[in-house]
Design brief:
The complex is a heterodimer of chains A (242) and B (222).
Chain A: H1 3-21, H2 26-64, H3 67-82, H4 85-95, H5 105-130, H6 134-142, H7 147-177, H8 189-200, H9 203-241
Helix pairs in contact in A: 1-9, 2-3, 2-5, 2-8, 2-9, 3-5, 4-5, 5-7, 6-7, 7-9, 8-9
Chain B: H1 6-47, H2 50-64, H3 68-81, H4 88-113, H5 117-125, H6 130-160, H7 172-183, H8 187-221
Classes of the chains: A mainly alpha (242), B mainly alpha (222).
Chain lengths: 242, 222
Amino acid sequence: MQLRSLTVCAIIAFAAGLIVASFAGFREFLPGLLQGALITVEITLGGCVLSVIAAVIAALAKMYGPWPIRWLAVVYIEIFRGTSALVQLFWLFFVLPRFGLTMEPLTVAILALGLNVGAYGAEVVRGAVAAVPRGQWEATIALNMNRAQALRRIILPQAVVAMIPPWGNLFIELLKATAIVSLITVADLAFRAQEMNATTYRTVEIFSIVLVIYLAMAMLITIGMRRLEGLAAKGLARGRSH
Amino acid sequence: MKFWDWPFTFEILPMLAWASLVTLEATILGFAIAAVLGLAFAIGRMFGPAWLSVPLAGFIEFIRSTPLLIQIFFLFFVFPEFGISLPAMTAGVMALGLHYATYCSEVYRAGLANIARGQWEACTALNLTAFHTFRDVIIPQAIPPIVPALGNYFVALFKDTPLLSAIAVLELMQTAKIIGSDNFRYTEPITIVGLIFLIFSLAAAGLIRLVEMRLNRRIRRA
Protein backbone atom coordinates (compact mmCIF):
# COMPACT_ATOMS: atom_id res chain seq x y z
CA MET A 1 0.00 0.00 0.00
CA GLN A 2 1.35 3.41 -0.94
CA LEU A 3 1.54 6.10 1.71
CA ARG A 4 -0.92 8.21 -0.30
CA SER A 5 -3.50 5.47 -0.45
CA LEU A 6 -2.88 4.85 3.25
CA THR A 7 -3.87 8.44 3.93
CA VAL A 8 -6.89 8.11 1.69
CA CYS A 9 -7.74 4.94 3.55
CA ALA A 10 -7.42 6.65 6.92
CA ILE A 11 -9.73 9.46 5.81
CA ILE A 12 -12.29 7.01 4.48
CA ALA A 13 -12.05 4.88 7.60
CA PHE A 14 -12.63 7.99 9.68
CA ALA A 15 -15.66 8.96 7.57
CA ALA A 16 -16.95 5.41 7.68
CA GLY A 17 -16.38 5.43 11.43
CA LEU A 18 -18.44 8.60 11.76
CA ILE A 19 -21.27 7.14 9.71
CA VAL A 20 -21.15 3.92 11.67
CA ALA A 21 -21.04 5.80 14.97
CA SER A 22 -24.19 7.66 14.05
CA PHE A 23 -26.07 4.40 13.61
CA ALA A 24 -28.63 3.76 16.29
CA GLY A 25 -27.33 0.23 16.72
CA PHE A 26 -23.76 1.30 17.41
CA ARG A 27 -24.01 1.18 21.21
CA GLU A 28 -26.07 -1.96 21.05
CA PHE A 29 -23.81 -4.03 18.82
CA LEU A 30 -20.31 -2.78 19.49
CA PRO A 31 -19.55 -4.49 22.84
CA GLY A 32 -20.48 -7.93 21.54
CA LEU A 33 -18.59 -7.37 18.30
CA LEU A 34 -15.49 -6.20 20.14
CA GLN A 35 -15.52 -9.41 22.17
CA GLY A 36 -15.51 -11.29 18.88
CA ALA A 37 -12.76 -9.01 17.58
CA LEU A 38 -10.61 -10.08 20.54
CA ILE A 39 -10.84 -13.70 19.39
CA THR A 40 -10.01 -12.59 15.84
CA VAL A 41 -6.91 -10.80 17.16
CA GLU A 42 -5.94 -13.89 19.12
CA ILE A 43 -6.23 -16.16 16.08
CA THR A 44 -4.39 -13.65 13.90
CA LEU A 45 -1.48 -13.36 16.34
CA GLY A 46 -1.28 -17.12 16.86
CA GLY A 47 -1.52 -17.71 13.13
CA CYS A 48 1.19 -15.12 12.39
CA VAL A 49 3.65 -16.76 14.79
CA LEU A 50 2.90 -20.26 13.51
CA SER A 51 3.05 -19.18 9.87
CA VAL A 52 6.49 -17.59 10.25
CA ILE A 53 7.87 -20.69 12.00
CA ALA A 54 6.32 -23.02 9.41
CA ALA A 55 7.53 -20.86 6.51
CA VAL A 56 11.15 -20.64 7.68
CA ILE A 57 11.35 -24.37 8.40
CA ALA A 58 9.69 -25.30 5.09
CA ALA A 59 11.82 -22.90 3.05
CA LEU A 60 15.12 -24.01 4.60
CA ALA A 61 14.09 -27.65 4.29
CA LYS A 62 13.20 -27.16 0.64
CA MET A 63 16.47 -25.35 -0.12
CA TYR A 64 19.03 -27.22 1.97
CA GLY A 65 17.43 -30.38 3.35
CA PRO A 66 18.41 -33.92 2.33
CA TRP A 67 16.01 -35.32 -0.25
CA PRO A 68 13.35 -36.92 2.05
CA ILE A 69 12.98 -33.70 4.03
CA ARG A 70 13.06 -31.59 0.88
CA TRP A 71 10.35 -33.79 -0.61
CA LEU A 72 8.25 -33.42 2.56
CA ALA A 73 8.58 -29.61 2.42
CA VAL A 74 7.53 -29.55 -1.25
CA VAL A 75 4.48 -31.69 -0.49
CA TYR A 76 3.50 -29.43 2.42
CA ILE A 77 3.87 -26.27 0.34
CA GLU A 78 2.00 -27.62 -2.69
CA ILE A 79 -0.88 -29.11 -0.68
CA PHE A 80 -1.48 -26.00 1.37
CA ARG A 81 -1.08 -23.64 -1.58
CA GLY A 82 -3.05 -25.83 -3.95
CA THR A 83 -6.21 -26.29 -1.89
CA SER A 84 -8.59 -23.86 -0.34
CA ALA A 85 -8.08 -22.57 3.22
CA LEU A 86 -11.65 -23.50 4.06
CA VAL A 87 -11.13 -27.07 2.86
CA GLN A 88 -8.00 -27.31 5.03
CA LEU A 89 -9.87 -25.93 8.02
CA PHE A 90 -12.74 -28.39 7.61
CA TRP A 91 -10.32 -31.23 7.04
CA LEU A 92 -8.48 -30.53 10.29
CA PHE A 93 -11.78 -30.00 12.09
CA PHE A 94 -13.74 -33.02 10.83
CA VAL A 95 -11.12 -35.56 9.80
CA LEU A 96 -8.39 -35.29 12.46
CA PRO A 97 -10.75 -36.42 15.27
CA ARG A 98 -11.16 -39.69 13.36
CA PHE A 99 -7.43 -40.26 13.78
CA GLY A 100 -7.89 -39.76 17.51
CA LEU A 101 -6.74 -36.13 17.51
CA THR A 102 -9.44 -33.95 18.97
CA MET A 103 -8.58 -30.28 19.41
CA GLU A 104 -10.39 -27.16 20.50
CA PRO A 105 -11.91 -25.31 17.53
CA LEU A 106 -9.70 -22.33 18.38
CA THR A 107 -6.57 -24.48 18.16
CA VAL A 108 -7.74 -25.96 14.86
CA ALA A 109 -8.33 -22.43 13.57
CA ILE A 110 -4.84 -21.23 14.45
CA LEU A 111 -3.27 -24.42 13.11
CA ALA A 112 -5.12 -24.33 9.78
CA LEU A 113 -4.56 -20.64 9.09
CA GLY A 114 -0.95 -20.71 10.31
CA LEU A 115 -0.08 -23.68 8.12
CA ASN A 116 -1.94 -22.21 5.14
CA VAL A 117 -0.20 -18.84 5.26
CA GLY A 118 3.07 -20.57 6.19
CA ALA A 119 3.02 -22.39 2.85
CA TYR A 120 2.75 -19.09 0.98
CA GLY A 121 5.34 -17.60 3.32
CA ALA A 122 7.78 -20.41 2.55
CA GLU A 123 8.04 -19.13 -1.03
CA VAL A 124 8.58 -15.59 0.28
CA VAL A 125 11.38 -16.78 2.56
CA ARG A 126 12.92 -18.85 -0.24
CA GLY A 127 12.84 -15.89 -2.62
CA ALA A 128 14.42 -13.57 -0.08
CA VAL A 129 17.19 -16.02 0.82
CA ALA A 130 17.89 -16.70 -2.85
CA ALA A 131 18.10 -12.95 -3.47
CA VAL A 132 21.04 -12.47 -1.09
CA PRO A 133 24.05 -11.83 -3.35
CA ARG A 134 26.34 -14.81 -4.05
CA GLY A 135 29.32 -12.89 -2.74
CA GLN A 136 27.88 -13.08 0.76
CA TRP A 137 27.91 -16.87 0.58
CA GLU A 138 31.41 -16.87 -0.80
CA ALA A 139 32.56 -14.59 2.01
CA THR A 140 31.17 -17.02 4.61
CA ILE A 141 33.09 -19.84 2.95
CA ALA A 142 36.23 -17.73 2.97
CA LEU A 143 35.65 -17.11 6.71
CA ASN A 144 35.34 -20.88 7.21
CA MET A 145 31.78 -20.73 8.52
CA ASN A 146 29.62 -23.79 8.19
CA ARG A 147 26.23 -23.54 6.51
CA ALA A 148 24.24 -23.11 9.73
CA GLN A 149 26.50 -20.31 10.92
CA ALA A 150 26.41 -18.63 7.55
CA LEU A 151 22.61 -18.75 7.44
CA ARG A 152 22.16 -17.54 10.97
CA ARG A 153 24.76 -14.80 11.05
CA ILE A 154 25.04 -13.55 7.50
CA ILE A 155 22.30 -14.67 5.12
CA LEU A 156 19.06 -14.63 7.13
CA PRO A 157 19.60 -11.18 8.72
CA GLN A 158 19.91 -9.72 5.22
CA ALA A 159 17.03 -11.76 3.84
CA VAL A 160 14.72 -10.64 6.67
CA VAL A 161 14.76 -7.04 5.44
CA ALA A 162 13.57 -8.08 1.99
CA MET A 163 10.93 -10.35 3.51
CA ILE A 164 9.11 -7.79 5.61
CA PRO A 165 6.89 -6.13 2.96
CA PRO A 166 5.55 -9.40 1.50
CA TRP A 167 5.00 -10.73 5.00
CA GLY A 168 2.92 -7.66 5.74
CA ASN A 169 0.63 -8.61 2.85
CA LEU A 170 0.48 -12.21 4.06
CA PHE A 171 -0.45 -11.12 7.58
CA ILE A 172 -3.32 -9.08 6.16
CA GLU A 173 -4.40 -12.12 4.12
CA LEU A 174 -4.29 -14.11 7.36
CA LEU A 175 -6.38 -11.54 9.18
CA LYS A 176 -8.95 -11.66 6.39
CA ALA A 177 -8.90 -15.44 6.34
CA THR A 178 -9.71 -15.60 10.06
CA ALA A 179 -13.32 -14.80 9.14
CA ILE A 180 -13.77 -18.39 7.92
CA VAL A 181 -13.17 -19.83 11.40
CA SER A 182 -16.70 -18.66 12.23
CA LEU A 183 -17.81 -21.61 10.10
CA ILE A 184 -16.31 -24.07 12.61
CA THR A 185 -18.12 -22.40 15.54
CA VAL A 186 -15.26 -20.24 16.79
CA ALA A 187 -16.92 -17.13 18.23
CA ASP A 188 -14.82 -14.59 16.34
CA LEU A 189 -15.91 -11.26 14.88
CA ALA A 190 -17.59 -12.80 11.82
CA PHE A 191 -19.40 -15.33 14.03
CA ARG A 192 -20.77 -12.63 16.33
CA ALA A 193 -21.90 -10.64 13.32
CA GLN A 194 -23.82 -13.58 11.90
CA GLU A 195 -25.34 -14.33 15.28
CA MET A 196 -26.55 -10.77 15.75
CA ASN A 197 -27.74 -10.59 12.17
CA ALA A 198 -29.78 -13.76 12.61
CA THR A 199 -31.56 -12.36 15.66
CA THR A 200 -31.99 -8.67 14.73
CA TYR A 201 -31.85 -8.57 10.89
CA ARG A 202 -30.11 -5.20 11.08
CA THR A 203 -27.65 -6.25 8.41
CA VAL A 204 -26.35 -2.91 7.17
CA GLU A 205 -25.46 -1.63 10.61
CA ILE A 206 -23.87 -4.83 11.91
CA PHE A 207 -21.82 -5.67 8.84
CA SER A 208 -20.71 -2.06 8.34
CA ILE A 209 -19.32 -1.96 11.87
CA VAL A 210 -17.65 -5.33 11.29
CA LEU A 211 -16.05 -4.25 8.01
CA VAL A 212 -14.69 -1.10 9.63
CA ILE A 213 -13.24 -3.12 12.53
CA TYR A 214 -11.49 -5.43 10.06
CA LEU A 215 -10.23 -2.43 8.10
CA ALA A 216 -8.83 -0.87 11.27
CA MET A 217 -7.01 -4.09 12.16
CA ALA A 218 -5.60 -4.39 8.64
CA MET A 219 -4.33 -0.81 8.84
CA LEU A 220 -2.70 -1.53 12.19
CA ILE A 221 -0.83 -4.42 10.56
CA THR A 222 0.24 -2.21 7.65
CA ILE A 223 1.49 0.52 9.96
CA GLY A 224 3.24 -1.97 12.24
CA MET A 225 5.01 -3.64 9.32
CA ARG A 226 6.15 -0.27 7.96
CA ARG A 227 7.69 0.52 11.34
CA LEU A 228 9.39 -2.86 11.39
CA GLU A 229 10.67 -2.34 7.85
CA GLY A 230 12.20 0.99 8.83
CA LEU A 231 13.85 -0.50 11.92
CA ALA A 232 15.21 -3.49 10.01
CA ALA A 233 16.60 -1.33 7.22
CA LYS A 234 18.29 0.93 9.78
CA GLY A 235 19.77 -2.08 11.57
CA LEU A 236 21.13 -3.44 8.31
CA ALA A 237 22.64 -0.08 7.39
CA ARG A 238 24.35 0.09 10.79
CA GLY A 239 25.69 -3.43 10.30
CA ARG A 240 27.15 -2.48 6.91
CA SER A 241 28.97 0.60 8.18
CA HIS A 242 31.12 -1.45 10.57
CA MET B 1 -14.90 -48.08 11.60
CA LYS B 2 -12.50 -48.00 8.71
CA PHE B 3 -10.43 -44.92 8.00
CA TRP B 4 -11.30 -44.97 4.35
CA ASP B 5 -14.38 -46.56 2.79
CA TRP B 6 -13.89 -47.21 -0.94
CA PRO B 7 -17.49 -48.21 -1.87
CA PHE B 8 -18.72 -45.05 -0.12
CA THR B 9 -16.13 -43.06 -2.06
CA PHE B 10 -17.44 -44.32 -5.39
CA GLU B 11 -20.99 -43.71 -4.26
CA ILE B 12 -20.41 -40.01 -3.53
CA LEU B 13 -18.01 -39.30 -6.38
CA PRO B 14 -20.73 -38.51 -8.99
CA MET B 15 -22.42 -36.06 -6.60
CA LEU B 16 -19.14 -34.27 -6.02
CA ALA B 17 -18.39 -34.24 -9.73
CA TRP B 18 -21.72 -32.46 -10.36
CA ALA B 19 -21.01 -30.02 -7.55
CA SER B 20 -17.61 -29.23 -9.02
CA LEU B 21 -19.46 -27.93 -12.10
CA VAL B 22 -21.20 -25.39 -9.86
CA THR B 23 -17.81 -24.44 -8.42
CA LEU B 24 -16.41 -23.97 -11.93
CA GLU B 25 -19.45 -21.94 -12.95
CA ALA B 26 -19.01 -19.63 -9.94
CA THR B 27 -15.29 -19.32 -10.71
CA ILE B 28 -15.79 -18.41 -14.35
CA LEU B 29 -18.66 -15.97 -13.77
CA GLY B 30 -16.88 -14.40 -10.81
CA PHE B 31 -13.69 -13.97 -12.77
CA ALA B 32 -15.54 -12.49 -15.75
CA ILE B 33 -16.91 -9.79 -13.42
CA ALA B 34 -13.51 -9.33 -11.80
CA ALA B 35 -11.68 -8.96 -15.12
CA VAL B 36 -14.07 -6.37 -16.57
CA LEU B 37 -14.73 -4.42 -13.37
CA GLY B 38 -11.03 -4.54 -12.47
CA LEU B 39 -10.10 -2.85 -15.75
CA ALA B 40 -12.76 -0.18 -15.15
CA PHE B 41 -11.41 0.37 -11.63
CA ALA B 42 -7.84 0.66 -12.88
CA ILE B 43 -8.70 3.15 -15.63
CA GLY B 44 -10.93 5.14 -13.30
CA ARG B 45 -8.25 5.25 -10.65
CA MET B 46 -5.39 6.17 -12.99
CA PHE B 47 -7.06 8.48 -15.48
CA GLY B 48 -10.29 9.58 -13.86
CA PRO B 49 -10.86 13.05 -12.42
CA ALA B 50 -10.03 13.49 -8.72
CA TRP B 51 -13.65 13.17 -7.61
CA LEU B 52 -13.65 9.70 -9.11
CA SER B 53 -10.10 8.46 -8.58
CA VAL B 54 -9.72 9.34 -4.89
CA PRO B 55 -12.91 7.65 -3.62
CA LEU B 56 -12.21 4.75 -5.97
CA ALA B 57 -8.73 4.29 -4.49
CA GLY B 58 -10.21 4.30 -1.00
CA PHE B 59 -12.94 1.87 -2.01
CA ILE B 60 -10.41 -0.51 -3.56
CA GLU B 61 -8.22 -0.45 -0.44
CA PHE B 62 -11.31 -0.98 1.70
CA ILE B 63 -12.47 -4.04 -0.24
CA ARG B 64 -8.93 -5.43 -0.36
CA SER B 65 -8.40 -5.21 3.38
CA THR B 66 -11.67 -6.71 4.56
CA PRO B 67 -12.64 -10.39 4.52
CA LEU B 68 -14.42 -11.83 1.50
CA LEU B 69 -16.72 -13.87 3.75
CA ILE B 70 -18.13 -10.72 5.34
CA GLN B 71 -18.60 -9.16 1.91
CA ILE B 72 -20.50 -12.26 0.77
CA PHE B 73 -22.77 -12.05 3.82
CA PHE B 74 -23.22 -8.34 3.31
CA LEU B 75 -24.38 -8.67 -0.30
CA PHE B 76 -26.51 -11.71 0.49
CA PHE B 77 -28.34 -10.13 3.43
CA VAL B 78 -28.41 -6.49 2.35
CA PHE B 79 -30.28 -6.79 -0.94
CA PRO B 80 -33.43 -8.26 0.62
CA GLU B 81 -33.55 -5.20 2.89
CA PHE B 82 -34.09 -3.10 -0.20
CA GLY B 83 -36.72 -5.48 -1.46
CA ILE B 84 -34.50 -7.22 -4.02
CA SER B 85 -34.05 -10.86 -3.25
CA LEU B 86 -31.05 -12.35 -4.99
CA PRO B 87 -30.43 -16.08 -5.26
CA ALA B 88 -27.47 -17.11 -3.10
CA MET B 89 -25.42 -17.98 -6.18
CA THR B 90 -25.88 -14.53 -7.72
CA ALA B 91 -24.98 -12.69 -4.52
CA GLY B 92 -21.98 -14.97 -4.02
CA VAL B 93 -20.69 -14.53 -7.56
CA MET B 94 -21.12 -10.76 -7.30
CA ALA B 95 -19.13 -10.68 -4.05
CA LEU B 96 -16.37 -12.86 -5.52
CA GLY B 97 -16.25 -10.71 -8.64
CA LEU B 98 -16.14 -7.46 -6.71
CA HIS B 99 -13.47 -8.68 -4.29
CA TYR B 100 -11.20 -9.96 -7.04
CA ALA B 101 -11.88 -6.92 -9.23
CA THR B 102 -9.95 -4.87 -6.70
CA TYR B 103 -7.02 -7.29 -6.92
CA CYS B 104 -7.18 -7.36 -10.70
CA SER B 105 -7.30 -3.57 -10.84
CA GLU B 106 -3.84 -3.48 -9.24
CA VAL B 107 -2.57 -5.86 -11.91
CA TYR B 108 -4.10 -3.79 -14.71
CA ARG B 109 -2.60 -0.70 -13.13
CA ALA B 110 0.86 -2.23 -13.37
CA GLY B 111 0.19 -3.18 -17.00
CA LEU B 112 -1.07 0.28 -17.92
CA ALA B 113 1.80 2.00 -16.12
CA ASN B 114 4.29 -0.01 -18.21
CA ILE B 115 3.09 1.47 -21.51
CA ALA B 116 5.80 3.72 -22.92
CA ARG B 117 5.04 7.44 -22.92
CA GLY B 118 5.63 7.59 -26.64
CA GLN B 119 2.55 5.45 -27.26
CA TRP B 120 0.36 8.03 -25.55
CA GLU B 121 2.04 10.86 -27.40
CA ALA B 122 1.56 9.06 -30.71
CA CYS B 123 -2.16 8.73 -29.96
CA THR B 124 -2.37 12.42 -29.25
CA ALA B 125 -0.47 13.17 -32.46
CA LEU B 126 -2.90 10.97 -34.42
CA ASN B 127 -5.81 12.79 -32.82
CA LEU B 128 -7.35 9.58 -31.50
CA THR B 129 -10.23 9.91 -29.08
CA ALA B 130 -9.76 8.61 -25.53
CA PHE B 131 -11.90 5.59 -26.39
CA HIS B 132 -9.86 4.65 -29.45
CA THR B 133 -6.60 5.31 -27.64
CA PHE B 134 -7.54 2.76 -25.02
CA ARG B 135 -9.22 0.23 -27.25
CA ASP B 136 -6.80 0.17 -30.17
CA VAL B 137 -3.43 1.15 -28.74
CA ILE B 138 -3.06 0.98 -24.98
CA ILE B 139 -5.09 -2.03 -23.86
CA PRO B 140 -3.84 -4.44 -26.57
CA GLN B 141 -0.30 -3.71 -25.36
CA ALA B 142 -1.09 -3.62 -21.66
CA ILE B 143 -2.97 -6.91 -21.33
CA PRO B 144 -0.65 -9.66 -22.68
CA PRO B 145 2.22 -9.12 -20.19
CA ILE B 146 -0.15 -9.32 -17.22
CA VAL B 147 -2.00 -12.47 -18.30
CA PRO B 148 0.02 -14.71 -15.91
CA ALA B 149 -0.71 -12.39 -12.96
CA LEU B 150 -4.40 -12.42 -13.82
CA GLY B 151 -4.19 -16.20 -14.09
CA ASN B 152 -2.90 -16.39 -10.52
CA TYR B 153 -5.93 -14.46 -9.32
CA PHE B 154 -8.16 -16.77 -11.33
CA VAL B 155 -6.75 -19.69 -9.34
CA ALA B 156 -7.03 -17.71 -6.09
CA LEU B 157 -10.69 -16.94 -6.84
CA PHE B 158 -11.27 -20.61 -7.60
CA LYS B 159 -9.83 -21.49 -4.19
CA ASP B 160 -12.13 -18.98 -2.50
CA THR B 161 -15.34 -20.41 -3.97
CA PRO B 162 -15.87 -22.76 -0.96
CA LEU B 163 -16.78 -19.60 0.97
CA LEU B 164 -20.06 -19.67 -0.97
CA SER B 165 -21.01 -22.71 1.12
CA ALA B 166 -21.56 -20.24 3.98
CA ILE B 167 -24.63 -18.89 2.16
CA ALA B 168 -25.72 -22.41 1.19
CA VAL B 169 -24.72 -22.41 -2.50
CA LEU B 170 -24.57 -26.07 -3.46
CA GLU B 171 -20.95 -26.06 -4.62
CA LEU B 172 -18.27 -28.62 -3.74
CA MET B 173 -17.77 -27.76 -0.09
CA GLN B 174 -21.47 -27.49 0.73
CA THR B 175 -22.19 -30.79 -1.03
CA ALA B 176 -19.34 -32.44 0.89
CA LYS B 177 -20.71 -31.10 4.17
CA ILE B 178 -24.22 -32.34 3.39
CA ILE B 179 -22.86 -35.78 2.45
CA GLY B 180 -20.82 -35.74 5.66
CA SER B 181 -23.71 -34.88 7.94
CA ASP B 182 -26.07 -37.35 6.22
CA ASN B 183 -23.68 -40.28 6.55
CA PHE B 184 -21.65 -39.24 9.61
CA ARG B 185 -18.54 -39.66 7.48
CA TYR B 186 -16.58 -36.52 6.73
CA THR B 187 -13.22 -38.10 5.91
CA GLU B 188 -14.00 -39.17 2.34
CA PRO B 189 -16.03 -36.20 1.06
CA ILE B 190 -13.71 -33.53 2.46
CA THR B 191 -10.56 -35.33 1.37
CA ILE B 192 -11.97 -35.76 -2.15
CA VAL B 193 -12.87 -32.07 -2.28
CA GLY B 194 -9.30 -31.25 -1.23
CA LEU B 195 -7.92 -33.52 -3.97
CA ILE B 196 -10.21 -31.97 -6.60
CA PHE B 197 -8.98 -28.51 -5.63
CA LEU B 198 -5.37 -29.67 -5.67
CA ILE B 199 -5.70 -31.22 -9.14
CA PHE B 200 -7.43 -28.16 -10.61
CA SER B 201 -4.94 -25.73 -9.06
CA LEU B 202 -1.88 -27.69 -10.16
CA ALA B 203 -3.32 -27.98 -13.68
CA ALA B 204 -4.08 -24.26 -13.73
CA ALA B 205 -0.61 -23.42 -12.46
CA GLY B 206 0.90 -25.53 -15.25
CA LEU B 207 -1.30 -23.82 -17.81
CA ILE B 208 -0.29 -20.37 -16.56
CA ARG B 209 3.38 -21.31 -16.83
CA LEU B 210 2.79 -22.45 -20.41
CA VAL B 211 1.03 -19.20 -21.33
CA GLU B 212 3.81 -17.24 -19.65
CA MET B 213 6.47 -19.03 -21.67
CA ARG B 214 4.64 -18.48 -24.97
CA LEU B 215 4.09 -14.82 -24.13
CA ASN B 216 7.74 -14.32 -23.25
CA ARG B 217 8.71 -15.86 -26.57
CA ARG B 218 6.31 -13.58 -28.44
CA ILE B 219 7.47 -10.49 -26.59
CA ARG B 220 11.12 -11.38 -27.21
CA ARG B 221 10.43 -11.90 -30.93
CA ALA B 222 8.72 -8.51 -31.11
